[in-house]
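To fix ideas, we quote verbatim a fold written out as C-alpha cells:
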Amino acid sequence: MFNKMNERKGEVKTVRKIVGIIALAVLIIIAIAGFSGYNYVSSALEPMDPESNKQIEVEIPMGSGITLISSILEEKGIIKDARIFKYYTKFKNESAFQAGDYSLTQSMTLDEIIESLKTGRVYREPVFTMTVPEGLTLEQVAGVIQKNTPHKAEDFLKKVTDKTYVEQLMTEYPDLLTENILNENIRHALEGYLYPATYPFYEENPSIEEIVKTMLTSMNTIVSEYTPILVEREMTVHELLTFASLLEEEATAQTDRETIASVFYNRMDIDMPLQTDPTVLYALGSHKDRVLYEDLEVDNPYNTYQNVGLPPGPIAGAGKTSIEAALNPSQTDYLYFLADKEGTNHFAKSYDEHLANIEKYLR
C-alpha cells in the first residue's frame, strides 16, 4: 500500500509537471501570438511603404460599401489588410465614402486614404510645394524649377523646347496645344502655356515631364472653362493666352486689367499698333528698367511698335485674372494709358489727352 501511495504521488507530480509545461507552452504561444498579432495590426495601421510615391490608379465603383472598398484597396496594394482597414474606419466612425477614380500611393496613411475617399480627392501631405508666379517667361520658369528641384534650368529648357517632345504633348493636349504654337516666328512653343500657380509635389525629385504635365493640365483645366466663349467670339486658345500675357506684363498692383484690355481691343479694331513695352523687351530678350526710343525700332515679330495686332505668341505666363480680363474687357473709347510712379493707371481717348497725362503724372 505504501509503495502504491508513493507511485501515485510520483504520478501526480509528473502530471503536474506535464500540466505546468503545457500551461507554460500555451502561455508562450499566446504571448507569441499576441505579440505577432499586435505587430501585424500595428504594421497594418502604418503606410505600406513610406518611401514609395508611385501613383496607383484605384477605381471605387458607385454604391461601394466599406467591405468592398477595403478589398479593393488591399488588392491594389494600398493597404495591408482589408479587415483591419474596415475595423479602423468603423472605430473612427468614418463613412460617406465617394465613388470615383483615385491616384493613391503606398506612402499614404490610413487617415489620408480615408480623407481622400470622403472628399472625392486625393489628400496627402506634399513633400514640397513650388510657386510659379504670374508673368514669368519660360526662361524664368526654368529658374524657378532649378531653385526648387534638382533639375538644372538648361535641362528644363532643353526638354520644353524639344520639337519631338512638344509634338508629343500636342497629342496629349489637343484642345490646348494647337498648330499655332509651331509658327516659325514663335520663340518657344510652350511659352505662356505653363499655368502659373503653387503646385504640391509628393516626391522629392519629380521628373521634368511630370512638372510640365502638371502645369499644362492646370492650364488646360482653366482654359476649358471658357471654351463656349471662345467659340462664340471665334477666338483661339493661342490668341487668348497671347492677349492675356500682354495684360499680365502690363499689370501693376493697382492695374485695371479689363480697362487695359479695352485699350488693346480698341486699337486692334482700327489697325493701330498696340505699342506695349513688354513686347519690345521680349523681342530684345533682356530685362530693362526703361525702354529706350532706339529699342522701339528693333526688327522683331514680337515688337508691337513695329507690327500691328497681337505678337506671334504669349510673352509670359498669364494668371486667371488676366485670362478673364481678355475675355471680358471694359467698354470704353480709350486708346492710351500710362501708369504713374505709384502704379495707378490713367487712360486717355486722344493723343493730346495722353500727352497731358504724361506731363501731369510722369514729369
About this structure: Residues 128-220 form a domain with the Dna Ligase; domain 1 fold (CATH 3.30.1490). The longest helix spans residues 2-44. The chain has a mean pLDDT of 87. Strands lie at 56-60, 100-104, 128-131, 198-201, 336-339, 345-348.
